[in-house]
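Case study 2.
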Amino acid sequence: MPRRMLAVVIEPSASLAQTVADVLGQRGYETATASTHASAANQVEKFDTVDFLVAAVPAPGEDHAGAYLEEARKKNASMSVVIMLSDPNEPTDDAPANAVRVVKPFSLHELNAAIDLASRSSSGTP
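Prediction:
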């Protein structure tokens, strides 16, 4: 049986995290959600590969341990990444270079477009 692809959502708002997880689930991903980067990093330790990450920028003062699943990205350099920003000018210096950015609040259409772009970017498809 083929491995089901795993997507991780890191977002402190439970309702937004669930919406994003639902969209990824409709695309065939198994999803895991976490409210912080550190808790997400702990959750994914048991998985061999994480295929997709949708993450809020770490909150001011939040521990940056596990930020953007750095250990999981080492195992899968082609992981697709979408970064959710509350402020378009928020610093994202430690975010993956290939991350697609989307500014909150966003529509489902904008979320789907960001997911599509991240998927194409990680696969090398224009």
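The radius of gyration is 13 Å.
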